[in-house]
Amino acid sequence: MADQLERYLKSKLSDGVDRRDFLKLGLTATGMAAVAACGGNPTSGSSGSSGPTGPEFKVGAVLPESGVYAELGKSITNGMQMYFDSVANQAGNRKITMVSADEQTALASAVAATKKVVEQDSVDMVAGYVSSPNAAGNRDYLDGQKMPTLIANAGVNSLSRAAKSPFIYRTSFSNWQPSHPMGTYVAEKLGKKKIQLVYAKYGAGLESVAAFKETFTAAGGTIVGPDVATPFPNNGDQTPFVQAINTGEIDGIYCFMSGTDAVSFLKKAAELGTLKKVDLVSGSGFFVEQDVLAAITDAAPLGALTGLHWALTLDTKENQDFVSKYSKKFAGRQADVFAVQGFDTARVIVDALNAVKGKTDDKLNFMKAISHVAFQSPRGDFKFDPNTNNVVQTIYIRKVVHNSKLGWTNQVIDHYPGVADPGK
Amino acid sequence: MTVGRGRTLLLLALLVALASLPLWAPRFWIYIGTQALIFAIFAMSLDLLLGYAGLASFGHAAFYGVGAYACGLLALRHVDALIPLLLIGALASAAVAVPIGALSLRATGIYFLMLTLAFAQILWGLAVNWTSLTRGTDGLIGVPRPALPGAGALGFTLNERGPFFILCLAVAVLVFLLLEALTRSPFGRTLEGIRENERRMRALGFPTFRYRLAVFVVGGAIAGLAGSLAAMSNGFATPDLLYWTVSGLVLVAVVVGGSRSLVGPVLGAFLVLIAQLGLSTFVDRWELVLGALFIAFVLFLPRGLVGLVRRA
């Protein structure tokens, strides 16, 4: 009861922040226009020209342009481009340009792409990395080069823990984040105590279900074995895995799968009617994100509850603004969580550049400016955790619904604000 | 005889040009050169099988990957010596090549090709799922490069790009000379005989199966050596290295460069690697362009880049 009251107060409070921040945004915009009118550079005084006069600021975008993650890469690039365009591609009196290199799927390609932007294109910073092994595999090189880097998707926990670097910050999530509150939610709020784990057996799947298990068992829940672990990616038949769900003995499942794996799994589960036999379908939000729902439509698990740091339907001014502008700018393409991550990544770059007035030679000072960036994102409060160099954010509990306007989507029904990776 | 001398002169010129690379090229080029040299060693090992012994293996990446994992595992256990780290890759791959060869070589042609592909995919599955040893899809990362005895006194280490490039060049030259000697030896001639007419060679009293198995193991060992260098160069070993697309890419390099020549695969490896890097910057579907190039070579230049030179 007390905890519900607290959450209610907090949500009211954050409404207030939204409005205040909106005003602040307006003031910043006016201020920026004024600065731009004075030539953009406070030291150059009354030069009168409108464009930036400082050296170009090059951002190396290492994102997949081909292979299975190409669509994710495209969303992140779009999101970044959208924010950079909104500030006329300049900040701190420097013109911002994006230099892209194809991350592809294999680590060897991602390493080559990183070296290309750093050494050949001499970028000032690097942003990107969709897949976790690629982010982790480039970590030592980027750290050694003292290259300011923002991870825009890859969720591998170690980058916020043992392998964190003063030069690498993450704007997306750690795999731990979306799943950790779900354990508490399922066991305490829903009172479901017997759960079977279902996951794609690779880094993100293993780390996600481990985070769920941690809070779920601490709140008195029991994991019913054996776990259903599918190969990753699973290009074969999902039937044996769907049938391995022990419908007779469990209250529900907790699942981590994403993209095509989630699509084939949910389709097969709908065909066999398996998920209708359990009370609760829960999981990490990627399991039923917009890309998956669009592909499976009526095979969607109605009422499934998942945790994620964003939802299309999130009813804040920032989000609704972002969603409508995004689809207008990119020919009707629907916004997704990856586009939000790209948008925020670009904003961190712009805010940090403004804070140091375009002076990025002192890399540690620039990283310090990055660490202080905080704002209202389409996903809610955005700030960095000084202990983990990872974003601190709200995790939303969302329910799969069929909405007359949006079709299949996720409705936000609860939220856990300020979720921060534990750092160890 | 003049053709032979021309070839030697050309190769020496190429060697000098490559050896001077660290002196004038930008750092990124040295990196690309290193990657291409490692890929060239890998391609030469496939040429031994495909060109000389007529064994179209479609699972050669297995040996490259096993070599990389063997080197990575040993280096992560604090073995800090160049020669053992290089040799472990070759030895591990040779050990894996013996059973795979013994089984696959019972078939020929397309069946042999499918069997090698299947074995390579099994090893890939092992690399993905044996997480306690291989760390699954994340792979082994942070593989350190070994110290070079005596290099410290001269003021350089293998962690610098130039010296490491020279190391790869030296290994590539040694492998080239070894394979050249091997293919010109009676052993190599026998292999060519088996390729052309195995039944006749058997009738002449040659234990042909043993010859084919021997060359399969030698090819695997050299691919493993390339894998060792790859693990040191990149600092990682991941399941991707064993995936069938890598087997396909090296096959393309050999065919485009020109098989049965040893120089051809080297040229092919450089071309494929540079195409992959250069093209992926400009077109999303760079594999499509490479595929078209491959078809064009098979149709119009079946002897590859080397065929161009020889014809001229």
Cα-based radius of gyration of chain B, to the nearest Å: 19 Å
Arithmetic mean of pLDDT of chain B: 89
DSSP strand content of chain A: 15-25%
Oligomer: heterodimer
- Order of strands, main sheet of chain B, comes to 1-2
Shape of chain A: globular
Number of strands of chain B: 2
Shape of chain B: globular
What's the Cα radius of gyration of chain A?
Answer: 22 Å
N-C termini distance of chain A: 31 Å
Q: Structural class of the helices, strands and pairings of chain A?
A: alpha/beta
Element pattern of chain A in H and E: HEHEEHEHEEHEHEEHEHEHEHHHEEEE
Structural category of chain B is mainly alpha
Distance between the termini of chain B: 16 Å
How many individual β-strands of chain A? 16
Low-confidence segments of chain B, given as residue ranges, are: none
Task: Profile the largest sheet of chain A.
Answer: 10 strands, mixed
Strand content of chain B: under 5%
Q: Largest interface, by Cβ-Cβ below 8 angstroms: which chains and how many residues each? A: A-B, 31 and 29 residues
Q: What is the succession of H and E elements of chain B? A: HHHHHHHEHHHHHEHHHH
3D architecture notes:
The complex is a heterodimer of chains A (424) and B (312). By secondary structure, chain A is of the alpha/beta class. In chain A, helix 2 packs across helix 11 and helix 11 crosses helix 12. About 10% of the residues of chain A have low confidence. Chain B is mostly helical. The longest helix of chain B has 27 residues. Chain B has 16 helices and two strands. Chain B has a two-stranded antiparallel sheet. Chains A and B meet through helix 3 and helix 4 of A and helix 3 and helix 14 of B. Chain A: Keywords: Signal.
